[in-house]
Design brief:
The chain has 263 residues and is an alpha/beta fold. It has eleven helices and ten strands. α3 packs antiparallel against α10. It is globular.
């Protein structure tokens, strides 16, 4: 997991486990391998008694581009679809008995926003661009819906899911972390030069809390049967990925052309 070509890098020091999305050449897209290694790293951090806080960081300018679409295009069963595996990873993040902090230095799309929503805290660079891009591919962001719903209002979620980008007329393709902060999707949006300091300060504050108490708080504030809800949502996502419209949307993205429903 720590080799140079691994899609996840892991480091534990000073009571903090840092899990780094480490496939910058693929914009940290959520392949089944990356998701599997992310889950393994999370389990490693949870099992380590010396670890008090888990940080999810990333290599390269993009936090996460969402699902690996080439792998999704090749999938012919739910078990082979990255989105199905993502459901389990999101549940692992939410259910981890230790605080999880996401540090977002760049763009996030689709499933990447699921990682952000699943974390207990997200510190993001103010102008990091974000989008729920699934609808433009002819698919539904069902698998991330349960964790996004914990963060923002149903009305805002519907608006963002329907347009796929931002709500500001002059830049409708994306919204920023600053917008996401205002809506509650991220905890704090800060200028790039302050990002590391703010994240480090948050981690230190979290280390002051009692570990058993923090684990209990996460249980107290948990969404009932979230893992089951995420699994059911993954099955809905799969239906759309395997539909004619979903197949066309993914093909059009890979072929860098408009999908057939765009006139």
């Amino acid at each position: 997991m720590d080799s140079n070509d691994a899609p996840i890098a892991y480091r534990a020091e000073q009571a903090v486990a840092t899990i780094t999305l480490n496939a910058p050449e693929r914009r940290n897209a959520l392949s089944t391998r990356l998701i599997a290694e992310l889950r393994s790293a999370l389990a490693r951090a949870v099992a380590d008694r010396d670890v008090r806080v888990i940080v999810i960081d990333h290599a390269g300018p993009v936090f996460c581009a969402g699902a690996d679409l080439k792998e999704s295009a090749a999938a012919h069963s739910l078990a082979a679809l990255p989105a199905a595996h993502l459901a389990e990873a999101l549940a692992d993040i939410v259910e981890a008995p230790k605080p999880v902090v996401a540090v977002v230095r760049g763009a996030a799309r689709g499933g990447g926003l699921g990682l952000i929503a699943a974390a207990d805290f997200t510190v993001a660079e103010s102008y990091a661009e974000m989008a729920f891009s699934e609808v433009r591919l002819g698919v539904v962001p069902a698998v991330i819906g349960p964790v996004v719903a914990r963060r923002i209002t149903p009305a805002r979620m519907r608006e963002l899911f329907l347009v796929g980008g931002g709500l500001v007329v002059e830049d409708a393709d994306v919204f920023t972390a600053e917008d996401a902060d205002m809506w509650g999707l991220v905890s704090t949006a800060v200028e790039e030069e302050h990002l590391d300091a703010v994240a480090a300060e948050l981690v230190e504050r979290l280390k002051l809390g009692g570990p058993a108490a923090q684990a209990g708080i996460k249980v107290l504030t948990a969404t009932p049967d979230l893992r089951g809800e995420l699994r059911r949502a993954a099955a809905v996502t799969g239906e759309y990925f395997f539909s004619e419209e979903g197949r066309e949307g993914i093909r059009s993205f890979i072929e860098k052309r408009p999908p057939s429903w765009v006139g």
